[in-house]
Here is the input.
Amino acid sequence: MRTQVAIIGAGPSGLLLGQLLHKAGIDNIIVERQSGDYVLSRIRAGVLEQITMDLLEQAGVAQRAHAEGLPHHGIELLFKGERHRIDMHKLTGGKQVMVYGQTEVTRDLMDARAAAGLSTVYEASQVSLHDFDGTQPRVRYVKDGVTHEIECDFIAGCDGYHGVSRASVPAGAIHEYEKVYPFGWLGVLADVPPVS
Ligand SMILES: Cc1cc2nc3c(=O)[nH]c(=O)nc-3n(C[C@H](O)[C@H](O)[C@H](O)COP(=O)(O)OP(=O)(O)OC[C@H]3O[C@@H](n4cnc5c(N)ncnc54)[C@H](O)[C@@H]3O)c2cc1C
Here is the structure.
């Protein structure tokens, strides 16, 4: 098998990268260790920041998020019976957050991938990376007891901090990029019955 970019991991990063590469005319294959159903049912994020929505739009997969998501322009904090509105929309020059589940983002990206006819290998075990810093990078994996190899130009490790990609890069070759925000996060836990 040959492709331009072999992507490890079919989470939001891998699927979105695959879609953006496809839009740029670059062929790619995703290799994921879990099943598609497992990935789809993995509950995580629910709030998408403006930058995420912008990227989904760029990838051409934001239609359903706009139709079914709940845009939030701000929040209200109550102290001693007084309401204090934090108008995030106004304070940030028009930005907002969108309440839309990660499972739905994943579904939209998977649908777009299927519509584009792009390959995703689910339930791939023993995924290993070879020569990714050389001229002939390869990804090897086992599926249904058979070993397969993908030849590619680049390998994109989108399998998370604890995935095989990061562990395969020699310590001296890793450059870490970190963005430290000048504010903290406010978490509020509410003990209320679920909304039906
Ligand atoms: C409880 C919770 C709440 C969150 N809430 C929000 C929120 O409100 N808003 C927000 O923006 N973000 C939120 N996040 C963060 C968001 O979920 C993550 O940023 C996002 O899932 C990261 O996507 P990813 O594709 O990089 O990694 P992952 O989602 O972890 O995907 C990595 C993929 O790689 C696969 N993989 C791993 N190892 C291998 C291997 N060896 N071979 C092949 N495949 C492999 C995994 O199975 C997985 O499918 C939340 C996270 C959690 C846990």
In short: Residues 102-115 form the longest helix (14 residues).
